[in-house]
Design brief:
alpha/beta, about 230 residues, four-stranded antiparallel β-sheet
């Protein structure tokens, strides 16, 4: 008796590119780069706007304020020292966190960057940059960031998933400014350290998005797609 076909979780590392090429790209559209993200993974760096808070988050924020007030009263010298050492830079090309999949900045929730990024914050999927559009493709189904060879399931077919595109910006709505090297400021010594290479997307209202580049700087990301 034949064994039933085995399936595995859809891998955001190895299964995304075939999915995009087979089910999402338009005829003649060229894939330039993509960046998978999980809804429970590292959040994007936002500047000038923030996601709406849930009731639970608002409650925790109030508790945080109370805790800070008590801390200020009890150990003022330590608090002042910590604030001096941990203060973040105010430049949109720097951040105290590293390896975020995406950075976005703008003047409020009405900015072009905010309207593109906010609908994706609680989604699992992939940011995609092509020669025709910038988009977020949401993946509905069981997914993992682990590659098949790391799970011992390399011989199994990926579990079927459904996709939708909640955000898709045609190229005429933004300017692609190429790749930029982002840096971060260390907490204690205030030194600048590289974060990685990002694709920079600029909008007419001054807002923008940096999408993390998947390849090391020494590798030409276009080489595999050139005809």
């Amino acid at each position: 008796m034949a064994k039933p076909a085995k399936t595995r979780y859809f891998s955001l590392r190895t299964d995304v590119e075939p999915l995009l090429r087979e089910r999402w790209l338009r005829p003649g559209e060229r894939l330039l780069d993509f960046r998978p993200v999980e809804d429970t993974g590292t959040a994007p760096g936002l500047r000038g706007f923030s996601p709406p808070r849930t009731a639970g988050q608002r409650f925790l924020r109030v508790l945080g304020y109370i805790g800070l007030a008590l801390l200020f009263v009890l150990i003022v010298p330590i608090l002042v020292y910590a604030l001096e050492g941990l203060g973040g830079a105010e430049d949109d090309t720097k951040d105290s966190r590293k390896r975020r999949p995406l950075y976005a900045w703008g003047d409020g929730a009405g900015s072009a960057a905010a309207q593109a990024v906010l609908p994706t914050l609680r989604c699992t999927g992939v940011w995609v940059l092509t020669d025709q559009r910038l988009a977020f493709v949401a993946v509905q189904g069981k997914t993992t960031l682990t590659a098949p060879h790391e799970t011992g399931e390399a011989d199994r077919l990926p579990r079927p998933v459904e996709i939708e595109t909640p955000v898709a910006l045609p190229s005429h709505r933004y300017a692609y400014e190429g790749k930029v090297e982002r840096t971060r400021t260390t907490a204690l010594l205030r030194r600048e350290k590289p974060v990685g290479t990002y694709h920079r997307i600029a909008f007419a209202d001054g807002s923008g998005i940096d999408m993390r580049h998947r390849y090391p700087p020494a590798v030409d990301p276009m080489a595999r797609f050139k005809r």
